[in-house]
Amino acid sequence: MTACFIVRATIIDETVKNAFDRWYQEEHLVEAHKAFGAQRAWRGWSEVDPNVHYAVYEFDDVTAARAVPDSDALKQLAIEFDRMWSDKVTRKRETVDTIQVIGG
What we know:
alpha+beta; four-stranded antiparallel beta sheet; 3 helices; about 40% helix
């Protein structure tokens, strides 16, 4: 079964939301997808809180997803994230192991 590494970012300074969205679209999602060796990656904005952004990186198994938080790839990407958004965007990360899938 697959597993996902998920990043939940919250915009603190609403004046940077558009710039953050562009940066994630044009640079960060592609770089993280490649650096993590993820099978797929996607992102979106919450419909409940418009200042919450999710990025999801899908892996073939939970072992690969669990390796991301301690990886050099994440450390390097986090340095760039902090340089760009340090006091304007907060983030939380978690790994989710898929235990059931219905449908295609």
